[in-house]
Amino acid sequence: MVYFSSVSENTHKFVVKTGVRNVRLPLRTSDVAPEVNEPFVLCVPSYGRPGGSGSIPPQAVKFLNNPVNREHLAGVIGAGNTNFGELYCIAAEKVAAKCHVPVLYKFELMGTAEDVSKVRDGLEEFWKQNSLHRI
User: The organism sits in which domain of life (predicted)?
Assistant: First the structure.
């Protein structure tokens, strides 16, 4: 799983709890983004802005602007806050639509123990069904 987490560390805490192999995107957009040469799932938080513009973290945009990374994107998991209403996990929806991959799951803030279990089990099944290597 590749993920971005802001200084709040909410997404980071969730990803760590899943126990899956992961790569964290740099906090600063000026830092070099990694290049991933195998199938991966992106976990991305949403930011609540009017109309949803600017909802995708610029670090995730920079990462996905690399054609190699886009080619290996297999799915998206959204992190969000239900206080955003219709914009809850909008970043995952936008990335999925733009990159033609499925939204696999959505969770709020740091997620619950049930969310962690569902994502861990769901990713295992996703990789099996798609004959992809697990990262």
Answer: Bacteria
